[in-house]
Amino acid sequence: MLATYLIGLREGLEATLVVTILVAFLVKSDLRHRLPYVWAGVAAAVLLSVGFAAFLEFTSANLEFRNKELFEATASIAAVVFVTWMIFWMRRAARGIAGELRTKMQSAIEIGPIAVAVTAFLAVAREGLETALFFFATVQSNDANHAVAAIVGGIATSIAIGVGLYYSAVRINLTRFFTWTGAILVLVAAGILKYGVHDLQEADVVPGLNNQLSVPSFDPTTWWAELLRGMFNVTTNPSVLESLAWFLYALPVLLLFLWPKNRSSHA
């Protein structure tokens, strides 16, 4: 649940910040009459994201075993690719995103109200589709009802933070927030990749399902074991290949993500 909550919080806050920037721009530009078009675009993006999540769940539930495993493996690997791109993109573009959105909104205003709605839709839809895909990939190894509650809770928290930021009631260091959540999401993504490799082994696409890694045994019913499994997909009897995939993704990606951006300029 914690991993799913974090996904909802992180992705939800990105979308909320986008909407906040667009709304603030229109309000400060005395263009409040354009706000309904922003909300229309946001609503359409939310509906698309929910529909995409439902499509993934419906498709997975109606496939035969092997095709189901292949479908879930593909979704898991796609989610890892998207989340990796997202955290590095946000790390690079966070400072300039407000100016970029204002420029796009100004251009949309000059074109017309439909362009305003489309701008809001595109800005939010990207985050929503990523959230739906990442949620689907994460929920495969967790209780669905708890996962839904967790991601809704994360999104609700992100909206509350966004509203607080808009009215200057909340002050948070967004750079630090996105750095820490990004680092945790790298480990979550590593677990999703591990799960995807396991699905490929279940579907007999790659070998080694029964070639398990010899690790110290621990009680899987303890709270910390459940936390490791839910957050990072750390299990008691992993195969060698899926464990290798976890480490080969997590270690270099985490190192690159946390490496100071100005380190190379002083070398």
From TrEMBL:
Cell compartment(s), UniProt? Membrane
How does it sit in the bilayer? Multi-pass membrane protein
Kindly state which keywords UniProt assigns to this record, in alphabetical order. Membrane, Transmembrane, Transmembrane helix
Name the predominant localization: membrane
List residues traversing the bilayer: 6-26, 38-58, 70-88, 108-126, 146-170, 177-197, 240-259
Q: Which GO terms describe its cellular component?
A: high-affinity iron permease complex
- Entry-linked Pfam families: FTR1
The GO molecular function terms of this record are: ferrous iron transmembrane transporter activity
Signal peptide positions are none
The record's comment on protein family reads: Belongs to the oxidase-dependent Fe transporter (OFeT) (TC 9.A.10.1) family.
User: What is this protein's name?
Assistant: Iron transporter
